Amino acid sequence: MQRRDFISGSIALAGTTLINNRLMSQSLPTSPEPDAGVADENYWNKVRALYTRPDGFINLENGYFSHQPASTLAFHQQSEKDINTRNSVFMRKEQQAAIESARTSLAGFLRCDAEELALLRNTTEALNIVIMGFPWEKGDEVVLGNQDYGSMTEAFQQAAKRFGIVLKYAQVPLIPNSDEEVTEAYQRLFTRKTRMVHLTHLINLSGQVIPVAKIAAEAKKRNIAVAVDSAHAVAHLEFGIADLQADFVGASLHKWLCNPLGAGFLWMRKDFIPELWPLMGDTSQPSNNIRRFEHVGTRPIQTLQCIPESIAFHNKIGSALKEKRLRYMMHYWTSKVAKTPKIKLNTPWEDATRCGAIANVAIDGYTPGKIDGYTPGKLAEILFSKYRIFTVAIEHPAINGVRITPHLSNTIKDLDVLVSALTEISSS
Ligand SMILES: Cc1ncc(COP(=O)(O)O)c(C=O)c1O
Fold first, then answer.
1. Which of 267, 286, 313, 282 is nearest to 103 (CA)?
2. Distance 226 CA to ligand 1 centre (A)
3. Domain of residue 363, residue span
4. Is 204's C-beta closer than 6 angstroms to any atom of ligand 1?
5. In this structure, are 330 and 303 located in the same domain?
6. Within this chain, do residues 306 and 332 fall inside the same structural domain, yes or no?
7. Considering its fold, how many domains does the chain have in total?
8. Atom of ligand 1 nearest to the CA of 126
9. I want to staple 102 with a disulfide (CB 3.0 to 4.6 A). Which of 16, 27, 145, 304 is the partner?
């Protein structure tokens, strides 16, 4: 189907029911087998046609959030219109059924029990429920990673002041040689006082995937609770909740699932549901009901209503093919610049088990402390102002470079433009 036909189809459908609208994701062509399909540009051009690309620049910063394909966008708009029309009748009589339907669909996608799944606004909210609500005792120790996301680190630092817990930071190697090297970075900090380990499944700074299940197995031997930040892993890497061997998993659905902004979840092992304090007071639900963590007040239900639609779109491509394609795009450009003098990759890009779409690149001379003003920020600025490529600079004690995050809406040509820009900058 040509893009114009698809869009006019969307508009025609927009006036019909949401059920019909959901069928729009079916307009994607049947996906090829993962091995054959990963470089089938004919297929990817059809997928890409469902996204609206920005004018005037190439977006290689899809890590913040992912834009939605036209089908999800139209579904969202229709859903908002519908709620706006039915108003409080929807909120009072139909809202909960809509939430439950989204919960069932997401549980199917994550291969977990829906009664262990709270639908929330994002990863930050999900993991703050865990960090602020865990039944801490003064002196309890937590092991977190030196490259964990800032909001989680800050939440733990606040909890340390408030509850008297002690934080220890595992130094995760940038380019590990083995899973054991990463596992050991955490394991060596475990003591008899450790109550929780916090793991970032796919590190946003570098794109590194850490061996969550192996670290969790070591934690379990010592009765340590395992909390996982899967913000960048869900709908990017193919896995089910049980594969992680965790007790808590938080993620955002506006990242790789391409759901509209403001949807996330917290999965919590059943035994913990009565143990944690909800972030917002709740006495209306029984203490063993996961819904006690969803007491967030009036919220945009249309965002949650989109979850089944976003999953339908994702499934039409298929998790295995999508993961392979995202890694293929990362590998396409990293392999072309890896040997270029002055260029350094801060991602284990050659090891398919340790990365996906994201990679971090540094160029000699654009590293803090060398030449005044020549930082990763400057490199990102040059990429944007001179080459019209939008990226994000990472300036962090553990890693300095520019993060490159392609998505399904990018073309191979976009990556060629990036390769020429990096080559030219590094030789100037
Ligand atoms: C690893 C990681 N965790 C958590 C978050 C926070 O996600 P949100 O802002 O959707 O809560 C991000 C955002 O980029 C992230 O990269």
1. 267
2. 18
3. 321-427
4. yes
5. no
6. no
7. 2
8. 11
9. 304
Q: Is the pLDDT of residue 18 over 60?
A: no
- 101 lies in the same domain as 233: yes
* Residue 27 is assigned to a structural domain of this protein: no
- pTM recorded for the entire structure: 0.94
Do 275 and 334 lie in one domain? The reply is: no
Contact 152, 126 (CB under 8 A): no
Shared domain check, 304 and 264: yes
CB 124 less than 6 A from any atom of ligand 1:
yes
Q: What CATH number did the domain enclosing 412 receive?
A: 3.90.1150.10
Nearest residue (CA) to ligand 1, atom 12: 231
Strand partners, 265: 119, 251
In a domain, 41, yes or no: no
Q: How would you list the strands of the sheet with 117-120, edge to edge?
A: 117-120, 264-268, 248-252, 225-229, 194-200, 141-145, 166-170
Residue closest to 199 by CA, chosen among 223, 177, 183, 221: 183
> How many Å lie between the centroid of ligand 1 and the Cα of residue 124?
6
Q: Is the CB of 232 under 6 A from ligand 1?
A: yes
pLDDT in tens, 139-149: 999 999 999 99
Same domain (yes/no): 248, 366: no
Q: Which of 89-98, 106-115, 364-373 has the lowest mean pLDDT?
A: 364-373
Q: Which of 124, 237, 360 should be mutated for ligand 1, with most atoms under 8 A from CB?
A: 124
User: What 3-state class would DSSP assign to 359?
Assistant: strand
